[in-house]
From TrEMBL:
Gene behind this protein: ackA
Gene Ontology cellular component annotations, sorted alphabetically: cytoplasm
Residues where substrate binds: 90
Signal peptide region: none
Protein name according to UniProt: Acetate kinase
């Protein structure tokens, strides 16, 4: 089964064409600057690349261009749209309504529209992608795979905020968590690497421009760092992470900032960028630290310290740990961050092997010492495979 995987953003559109049974990826690409001028970057075959500069006034033109590129011309990988048997959509926020992936129906779309206040930047674009695919490929099944679904197994005492209870009952204000497809994939891979499907205590650190940590007990999430929105939790590329409400209100009063200005600052101008003053890209900040830039050093120390705090708290929540996993662009590629995070965690049974840690590989691997009581894994994530696999199972009737 060929599954067309779609991740629709406000001005971009990421896609893959994959067979989830064989795990064969036929093509991968992105449409950028939708509504501005437009560029398509398309990868196919044995590392071949194609770039097309073309006007994309809306997401509809972008998806039409992708489908033409997949079926015709230099970037062709299938004979016709008929070779696409299903469409799997990344859906950011499912609230409490969706604890698993679902077939897209009118009722599902209406429910997602009601959840737009929880994800005003993401859900409208996700919904748009679904409706356009229904229009362009009528009759083909569409499946929504929610970032929040994996975290719906959290107990109430973990996801509730200590606000008046009616803020939860009236407005759904609680922790939801994100990056769920990545946390699911990596924790499941870790269980396989442990060769242990039961009584597993796994901590997953998904570290990239957006970062989150989860505590996974026996394959079920019991806590995660992101909250109502993705700004809570770890310090990230441009997001502030955990900041006290008093500090936010004081900053607003001192600067005369509106709520929207404050959210823009906390989401787009804070984190690694805000502290370093150099970049949101940790690689550039690590270079700056090596050159003696003290603000870059501070940003790196803060990133690692924040991760370590969450790891320690989740060891407590899990009553121990069998595996600590690193994934995402930073988690998979930054040996220094892994080293700093794991330094001093010997008492928790986590002992990193410097030689294994510094050996580069694009495959899942164990970087703990042989004598470490718990394992430390680096596992490349594959969120697209989760979306394709869920789509295949639902469309094939394997998940009822």
């Amino acid at each position: 089964m060929n599954v067309f995987i779609l991740n629709a953003g406000s001005s971009s559109l990421k896609y893959q064409l994959m067979n989830p049974v064989t795990k064969n990826v036929l093509a991968v690409g992105i449409c950028e600057r939708i509504g501005i001028d437009g560029v398509l970057k398309h990868e196919f075959g044995d590392g071949q690349e194609l770039k097309i500069d073309v006007s994309m006034p809306t997401h509809k033109e972008a998806i039409e261009l992708v489908l033409r590129t997949l079926t015709d011309g230099e970037g062709k990988v299938i004979d016709s749209i008929d070779d696409i048997e299903a469409i799997g959509h990344r859906a950011v926020h499912g609230g409490e309504e969706f604890a698993s992936s679902v077939m897209v129906t009118e009722k599902v779309i209406e429910t997602m529209k009601k959840l737009i206040p929880l994800a005003p930047l993401h859900n409208p674009a996700n919904i748009m992608g679904m409706e356009i695919c229904q229009e362009l490929m009528p009759g083909k099944p569409n499946v929504a795979v929610f970032d929040t679904a994996f975290h719906q197994t959290m107990p109430d005492y973990a996801y509730m905020y200590a606000l008046p209870y009616d803020q939860y009952t009236k407005h759904g204000i609680r922790k939801y968590g994100f990056h769920g497809t990545s946390h699911f994939f990596v924790s499941n891979e870790a269980r396989g690497m442990l060769d242990k499907k039961h009584n597993t205590r796994i901590i997953v650190c998904h570290l990239g421009n957006g970062s989150s940590v989860s505590a996974v007990l026996n394959g079920k999430c019991i806590d995660t760092s992101m909250g109502l929105t993705p700004v809570q939790g770890l310090m990230m590329g441009t997001r502030a992470g955990d900041v006290g409400a008093g500090a936010i209100s004081f900053m607003m009063s001192q600067e005369g900032m509106t709520i929207n200005e404050t959210l823009d600052l906390m989401n787009k101008k804070s984190g690694i960028l805000g502290i370093s003053g150099k970049s949101s890209d940790l690689r550039e900040v690590l270079d700056g630290m090596q050159e003696g830039d003290d603000r870059c050093r501070l940003a790196v120390d803060m990133v690692a310290y924040n991760i370590k705090k969450y790891v320690g708290s989740y060891v407590a929540a899990l009553d121990g740990v069998d595996a600590l996993c690193f994934t995402g662009g930073i988690g998979e590629n930054s040996a220094l961050i892994r080293e700093i995070v794991c330094a001093g965690l010997d008492g928790m049974g986590l002992n990193i092997d410097p030689t294994k840690n510094n050996k580069r590989s694009n495959k899942a691997r164990d970087i703990a010492t042989n004598s470490s009581a718990a394992r430390i894994f680096v596992i490349p994530t594959n969120e697209e495979y989760v979306i394709a696999s869920d789509t295949y199972k639902i469309v094939s009737g394997l998940e009822k």
